Inverse folding.
């Protein structure tokens, strides 16, 4: 029985790693596109980067790093049979996701208020490179935000299952794979932050 559970867990983990690989290819393509246009419009990209709020970006970086720590601690807690602790840690991770999205909403709203969004009059009349920068910015951060929502929803279900006793120290593949997905979300942001917010 234990051997069967081990094979199921190994298979589920392998499947998750394969899925995460496809996600890396997706964002890797966007980062490659970014590099191509950066080489073509270095000054416009630098000007676009100066329009972004570094403080918001830095806070969101700390928030996501903290969320990954909480998610990892949740796995350790369930391995030790501390289900209630795991539930609280998972909801802490979800709270971080909500904070991240709240800050991103404020940031995007400010940009829209300053007429900075794809197709806006300001960008249409400005240098083409700046329009490309913000098009890539909205595409990349929007796609990342979607992944944050998906990951947060997944972890919410996992937290409920942990609380119901469906996920235990002997059967925690869903928790482990959910946190793997969340770590990917965190990793992608670690690339987004310097590329867009710290570009000189």
């Amino acid at each position: 029985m234990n051997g069967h559970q081990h094979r199921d867990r190994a298979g589920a983990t392998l499947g998750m790693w394969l899925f995460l690989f496809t996600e890396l290819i997706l964002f890797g393509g966007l980062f490659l596109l970014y590099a191509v246009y950066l080489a073509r419009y270095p000054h416009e990209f630098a000007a676009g980067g100066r329009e972004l709020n570094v403080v918001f970006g830095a806070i969101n970086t700390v928030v996501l790093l903290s969320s990954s720590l909480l998610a990892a601690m949740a796995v350790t807690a369930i391995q030790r049979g501390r289900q209630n602790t795991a539930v609280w840690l998972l909801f802490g991770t979800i709270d971080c996701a909500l904070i991240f999205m709240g800050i991103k909403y404020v940031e995007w709203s400010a940009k829209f208020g300053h007429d900075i969004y794809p197709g806006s009059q300001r960008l249409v009349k400005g240098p083409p490179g700046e329009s490309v920068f913000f098009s890539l910015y909205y595409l990349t951060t929007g796609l990342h935000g979607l992944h944050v929502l998906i990951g947060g929803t997944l972890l919410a279900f996992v937290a409920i299952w942990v609380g119901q006793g469906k996920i235990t120290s002997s059967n925690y593949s869903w928790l482990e794979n959910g946190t793997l997905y969340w770590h990917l979300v965190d990793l992608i942001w670690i690339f987004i932050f310097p590329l867009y917010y710290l570009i000189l």
